[in-house]
Design goal:
364 residues; alpha+beta; Aminopeptidase; 2 domains; 11 helices; 31% helix
Length: 364
């Protein structure tokens, strides 16, 4: 087995070669690689991708996003695991552990991870090198019922019930449309959709973003995320999508960046929405104290305007506002999303606050 690693300069050269994307599997999509390369928190020497080959065939890979957090004003560099794949015929060969150990050494054992598959999470925990940094407490609200979409994830055979499920969707959604109509009358909010974080937005973020936020995202990082998505809108998956194990395209994917104003036309919030296949989440949001009501109304309004099926929200204050008269959901449920960190990062986890989009969550 051979192991190859690529820093920013090397990966940029490698993706220009046609040979890099040959074979049954590829270790990264081209647009995702371009995103990694343009990460403003990465330098030229940072390792971005490590792959394993057996007889010239790809058998495993692990990707990483260079990032940093703060302890006071001290900046601490670390990496987020962004993907981790092992060929199913090699699962018991130890390749996964070797790739992880190689990555840990490259980043001086300063690594975080989130959004693992159950199998990868077991390996991650079994190393005993990581603790739970926090748990993002997400609440999922079903706004518009699509039973076929929900149930086919559990069993393909429900597709044979497409017509009766569709009829049931129409019936239940029509019942809740009256509830939505009544709440929609309350959603008199003012906001603008902007393409990028401009000076006005960034000055607001700098002023109101809590100093204890784990990542303290800045203008360059937010604009990088918006400009270099990992998911491309495509009606049908192309050959590259099929070769890459992780998501690289969807029928719908976009970010909506909002400047939100109060009734006196004063900027009170900057919120980034992520829309994927009519599911919506709030990976990043900064707002003035006591502005939760307007922020919550804006999120609910956008969910209606964009025909969203499920909205996911982690901010406890926004969840409380929705519970107090803005809940248009058919059903809601809570789900925890743990973030892990290696012990060598050496930080006091209790002093930080977090956003739902921390790590690679903001991209997928």
């Amino acid at each position: 087995m051979e192991i190859f690693q690529y820093n920013r300069i090397q990966l940029k050269k490698e993706i220009e070669k046609e040979s890099f994307f040959r074979g049954e599997r590829i270790p990264i999509s081209k647009h995702r690689a371009i995103s990694h390369i343009n990460n403003p928190r990465a330098n030229d020497e940072d390792i971005l991708l490590i792959i394993a080959k057996e007889d010239s065939s790809l058998v495993g890979y692990i990707g990483v996003i260079p990032d940093y957090t703060y302890s006071g004003e001290e900046r601490i560099k670390f990496g987020w695991i962004s993907c981790w794949w092992i060929d199913e015929n090699q699962r018991k060969s130890g390749i996964g552990a070797k790739l992880l150990l190689k990555l840990l050494k490259e980043y001086k054992f300063r690594i975080c991870g989130v959004n693992f598959s159950p199998e990868a999470e077991k390996v991650f925990i079994a190393t005993k090198m990581f603790n739970t940094l926090t748990k993002i407490e997400n609440r999922n609200y079903i706004i518009r019922l699509d039973l076929l979409d929900l149930l086919k994830r559990k069993s393909y055979y429900v597709t044979y019930l497409k017509l009766p499920l569709k009829a049931l969707d129409i019936f239940i959604n029509s019942l809740y449309s009256i509830k939505r109509l009544n709440i929609r009358k309350k959603l008199t909010t003012k906001y603008e959709v902007i393409d990028r974080v401009d000076d006005k937005s960034y000055n607001f973020i700098r002023k109101y973003q809590p100093k204890n936020q784990f990542l303290r995202r800045e203008k360059d990082e937010l604009n990088w995320i918006i400009s270099y998505p990992w998911i491309i809108e495509r009606g049908e998956k192309n050959n590259e999508d099929l070769k890459y194990y992780f998501s690289s395209s969807s029928k719908q994917f976009k970010y909506k960046l909002l400047n939100i104003y109060d009734y006196n036309n004063e900027l009170i919030g900057v919120t980034l929405l992520k829309l994927r296949d009519f599911n919506m989440s709030v990976p990043f949001s900064v707002y003035k104290p006591k502005s939760e009501t307007i922020i919550a109304k804006t999120i609910i309004k956008e969910s209606i305007l964009n025909s969203i099926k499920i909205v996911t929200i982690s901010d406890s204050k926004i969840k409380d506002e929705i519970s107090n008269g803005l809940d248009i959901s058919i059903k809601s449920w809570d789900r925890s999303k743990p973030i892990y960190y290696s012990k060598m990062i050496g930080i006091d986890k209790n002093r930080y606050s977090f956003q739902d989009g921390d790590g690679d969550s903001i991209f997928t």
